[in-house]
Specification:
Helix content is 28%, strand content 26%. The chain has helices at 13-22, 56-65, 88-99, 110-116, 138-151, 192-199, 265-278, 323-339, 345-349, 354-357, and strands at residues 2-3, 6-9, 28-31, 48-49, 74-76, 79-83, 106-109, 126-130, 134-136, 155-157, 162-166, 170-173, 178-180, 183-186, 207-216, 229-232, 238-242, 245-249, 254-255, 288-296, 303-306, 313-317. Strands 6, 7, 8, 15, 16, 17, 18, 19 and 20 form a nine-stranded mixed sheet that branches. It has a six-stranded mixed sheet with strand order 10-3-2-14-22-21, sandwiched between helices. Helix 1 runs parallel beside helix 5 (138-151) and helix 1 runs parallel beside helix 8 (323-339).
Length: 363
């Protein structure tokens, strides 16, 4: 049996971020069921940090996490949110929410948007431009965190599927290996409730949902590398230039069981339809497609805290679609609650306290 001070289940951005912080306080062993880190959700994310999604608490976690993503982990990448006549009220509300965290957003009119993103159709009459967006290097971030854990004497082990979890805490893998630690961090993403069931811990009722992305070519001669990350304020479309192509999503949220998410034909067609609805870009062919899982709590705020019914069992789950952009803040919360480090002052100043992220809040 291999022993540690902290045992973490899940090798996505949540588990690795917490592992890197906890490695400062004792030996960490992280177990990932797949052969690659971040395989299901973190590795299928567009990996961006912006203030256009989530509640006040999510935006506060995002703001606090920003300094972690200094180059080369992140690079400046503007975001554009557009609205038609029917969604102007939503645009105004979004602008008010974002303005609480950045002074840099500005209103843009139809002419401004045409200059920023020429393919946008005329139905988009007004928008918001946030130049403070950050495009994140997902793989580099994951590997940087894993290296930090190993440099501190910890272990990051892939291909370790969990077969049993016993209070105390002891984890047995399908291959027959055993790992033990007094603190077990459940960062298993869409599988977090299943891990809890193995441990005899009450589930949180997490809600995994599938998100689809297609990859298409930009129009011939277009300077797509200069385009911003474009969002419909209606929440049904986004487009991100990436490596000479365009990542497009219908921002679908299809309830899904935990598993290896695959794109459905309907959602792929929906993504293509939304692209042609909002822009003049024709979909001649779809170069690639994929789907990933985003797992939410009931109030859509990530949870971090000890289970009230199981001493030493720590929840770190429900990151939804903002796992990367909130992970540094959540890792420091985990460090504070598990290792006794101070609660992050910057989060307290932004109104994020234990109650906002406690497991089972409001149950």
């Amino acid at each position: 049996m291999e022993r540690a001070d902290f045992l973490i289940l899940g090798g996505g951005i949540a588990g690795l971020s917490a592992a890197a912080r906890l490695a400062r306080h004792g030996r960490v062993v992280l177990l990932e069921g797949e052969e690659a880190l971040g395989y299901h959700s973190s590795g299928r994310s567009v990996s961006f940090s912006h203030y256009g999604i989530g509640s006040h608490a999510v935006r506060a976690l995002t703001a606090y996490s920003r300094p972690f993503f200094a180059p080369p982990l992140g690079r400046a990448f503007p975001t554009l949110y557009f609205a038609d006549e029917e969604s102007l009220t939503r645009l105004d509300a979004l602008g008010d929410d974002m303005a609480r965290f950045t002074d840099d957003i500005r209103a843009v009119d139809r002419r401004d948007m045409a200059a920023l993103f020429p393919p946008l159709r005329p139905a988009a009459v007004r928008g918001l431009l946030d130049p403070t967006g950050l495009k994140l290097d997902a793989d580099l971030i994951l590997q940087t965190l894993a290296r930090a854990v190993r440099a501190a004497g910890g272990a990051v082990l892939t291909g370790r599927r969990v077969a049993a979890v016993e209070p105390g805490w002891t984890v047995r893998t399908e291959a027959g290996e055993s790992f033990a630690a007094p603190v077990l961090v459940n960062a298993a993403g869409a599988w977090a409730d299943q891990v809890a069931a193995l441990a005899g811990v009450a589930p949180l009722g997490l809600d995994p949902r599938r998100r689809t992305i297609i990859v298409v070519d930009p129009p011939a001669g277009a300077h797509a590398e200069a385009w911003p990350f474009v969002h419909s304020v209606a929440g049904d479309f986004y487009l991100l230039p990436e490596a000479g192509r365009l990542l497009v999503s219908p921002v679908d949220e299809v309830p899904s069981d935990p598993g290896d998410a695959q794109p459905e034909d309907y959602d792929v067609a929906l993504a293509a339809d939304r692209l042609e609805h909002y822009t003049t870009i024709p979909v001649a062919r779809i170069a690639h497609r994929w789907a990933g899982l985003r797992t939410f709590t009931r109030d859509r705020v990530p949870t971090a805290g000890f289970a009230p019914d199981a001493p030493g069992f720590f929840w770190l789950a429900g990151q939804g679609g903002y796992g990367f952009q909130t992970a540094p803040a959540l890792a420091e919360i985990a460090e504070a609650l598990i290792a006794g480090a101070p609660w992050p002052k910057g989060l307290a100043e932004r109104g994020v306290l234990v109650e906002q992220v406690a497991p089972g809040r409001g149950a």
